[in-house]
Predict the structure of Taste receptor type 2.
Amino acid sequence: MLSILEGLFIFIAVSESILGVLGNGFIGLVNCIDCVKNKKFSMIGFILTGLATSRICLILIIITDGLTKIFFPDMYSSGNLIDYISYLWVIFNQSSIWFATSLSVFYFLKIANFSHHIFLWLKGRINKVLHLLMGSLFISWLFTFPQIVEIINESRMKSGNATWNLHMQRSKFFTKQILLNLGVILLFTLCLITCFLLIISLWRHNRSMQLNVTGPRDPSTEAHVKAMKVLISFIILFILYFIGIAIEISCFTLPENKLLFISGMVTTAIYPWGHSFILILGNSKLKQASLRALQRFKCLRWAEQERFGMGNMHVHRC
């Protein structure tokens, strides 16, 4: 039987999942419509669509895995369900982080302003850099899948009250988890480095503009400040995501600690839905599309009210 606090955390996790699917689905839909209209797929459109798709799948895996462990532990520990979830988790978790890293690298090379020759060389070869990152994703998969097979074979869950315990020493288990997530850790580190460098570049530009302009801040300065806020928010959410994953992994060695596991699930789910709304608010195309969608929703609601005699003349303005 779940406690009130555990039930509240599960409700929050499910709500985060719904918001995440809606937000990322909107991003993917807008970019697909834009691709159809322009009859071409830009690099940024490809990255955003891939990021949204992988995150939708990741959210569904997170919530399915968590709810199955909580409500149907016997089903989870028996059969091949844990195998399928583990393989899908590896694919979509690494894909999501790869697309997030590619997005940060893309913005870094497009927006940042450094005079170092290495940066200038990379800036002129942005497509090749992204293709190189894609190759690293496939290499990470080739390295990871044998590791996950070994962990699954050695770490079958016990039955009864110790369902969440593993037949493996903790030190060996955590060592294998580090090796399993080595590619993810490297991508995460690269993403943080590019984000911090981009923040430094934006901060330098903003400081230079403030020193040279005595009047109110111009739109360019406001845009740079907004970009810095978006990047800082992304970094915080990204770190929370890895903290949540670490909590969930540690729960494998802590029997029946459901509250800790649920709190890890809530923390993990913050990033996929939170960053999607940050992208919508920070991207002018996505923001305008969301405003148009809200306007149409209001018009439909007013039209519905008018149909039942409860509306007003605002419906004719839509």
Q: What stands out?
A: Confidence is low (pLDDT under 50) at residues 157-165, 313-317. The chain is about 80% helix and 0% strand.
